[in-house]
Amino acid sequence: MLALMSGTKSVRGHEADVDAGVLEVTFLNSPCPTAILALGVGGPRITAVNRAFAELLGYRTDDFLTLRLGELVAPGDLDSVNGWLADLEAGDAAATGRTLNWLNALGGEMRAQTRVSLTGPPGDRSHAVLFLDGLSQAPSPFGDMRKLLQDIIDGVPALVFIKDLDHRYILVNRWARQLFGGDCVGLTDADITIPEEAEQFRRHDLETLAAGEPREFEEWALHDGERHVYYSLKFPLLDHEGRPDALCGVSTDITELKRAEAAAREARDEAERADRAKSALLSRVSHELRTPLHSVLGYCQLLQVDGLALDVSATAARMASAGNHLLELINDLLEVSRVEQGQDHVRLEPVHACDPVNDAVDIMRPLADARDVELAVDLHGGLHEFVLADRRRLHQVLLNLMSNGVNYNRPGGQVRVSFRRTAPDLLRLLVSDTGSGIARRDFERVFMPFERLDGPEHPEGAGLGLAVSKSLIEAMDGTIGIESSQAGQGTTLFVELRLVAPPANAHELVFGARSRVPVRGSAVRGRVLYIEDHAANVELMRQALGQVGDVELVAADRGETGLRLAGEVHPDLILLDLHLPDVPGETVLGALKADPRTGSVPVVVLSADATPGRVTRAGVAGADHYLTKPLDLAEFLRVVEAVLDGTWKRATT
Predict the structure, then answer these.
(1) Which domains does the chain have, with CATH numbers?
(2) 424-447 confidence digits (pLDDT tens)
């Protein structure tokens, strides 16, 4: 037997050869817990054990290659055992049994009747066989404890495990076995997980063992290719001398909790974004509605002034233009609201793809000619196609897209309308222009209400056309967007709708005030710089200032232009609109106050943005007064007179 456990292929006794394989199987499967000891220099050591011996003490058979006898016998019995084996080796003891306390893998003690006998040829006292065949009447503490412990941890809805100092699993529960795809006792993390995952576990294990106290970690593990997040509590198991002897861990899957937390954060952030967007929208709505209203009411007040010589026809035309713009804004706002709330139901029907295009082109051609823009149409891709749409609403969207293409173009440019099938059941209508282009970061922004990318070539517009178009196309179960855009070369927008079979009657389808306030002139003189991008407002201001004396008005339609003129013309008063196409009005205000040439010049803000926050920020930035559009002309002129005659006292409200 000794030769077998030492690796010899067979054992030859005095009478016959015994097959080593049969002997090995007999030894390993014997129900009696048995171990083979090597005696001699260095004290007794274990060279082999069978399964019954290993299971009784809670180890694997391979563990005994490194375990010392002193780690298995209770400290109180160790000296007795060493003396007994020394006597046996010297031939002074018989092969009798003794009751000893043995230590299991978890540190618990169990009493067992222990027998030892020499093995090998006569006179060979180098090896002995140890048998544990007389357990005390009480059940094995380790056996009960291990089963009880296994039953307990198997019922825990988390991963529970114990590792030795070599990072090999000693004990795992049912959840761990499910995660790792089977029993992993005797294996390391490197044996059962990917390198990144194993390195993470090992790093945390070492940190816990080095600390000698519990540690908490957030770890990850793969389940069928899906990454799960775990909250892990790891703590060292200490031996009787207080040194780490093993590591225990409990890991709880918190993946769903993390997802819920992420969803809650996203919902909170979305609510905050919506709140900010609402405030910004209210500010824009206030500005956009007050601007034309300011023009209408301003001219009305001028008409109420007795004896004032006005070009009535031109004034009425400006008032009508501003009124129509205001009405258009209100209608667009209401339309966006109705579509988003589902109150304005679209009427979907088969629509010949070319008919709304032809109608829109006929309407847009005069505008294109007036702006020296060529309007080109290629109908080949849509000649035989019908799309599911609301014809009237599709016509409205096409007008918006073509109008943008013409208005934001350059003289001698082109707007081209064409079709392309992008899928067996989808038709894309393309509107391409040769304008200045749109930056990719602004692709989504241009479809938001009141978002304008105004340039010097086209400062007009409220920024609602594309927002309305987006709502309408999405209500038709279609998509709208920017297919491509290059700086200086132009932009291609698209509308994509679902194709349908032509109807039976396809050949028949046809593509149908404020109170009166007297204003008296005075003898004040001075120069006023007005930084404002709307020509109608500049003209209104020019006529209004004519009522207070000899006042020269200098106008600037851009913030940068205004800053330059302010240093050149030395104005006595600066009127500033906050919504400028090139730089924010507040930036202009700060630059004016920081420039020694203009820092002492009174600045009166004239803005359609009446929100309290904007008024406060303007005052902090140095504005001497803040008037909201539409202006009360009498109040405005009193402010101008006070500034120009030197009686002004700064009071931002």
Answers:
(1) 2-139 (3.30.450.20), 155-253 (3.30.450.20), 272-331+519-653 (3.40.50.2300), 349-508 (3.30.565.10)
(2) 999 999 999 998 888 888 777 777
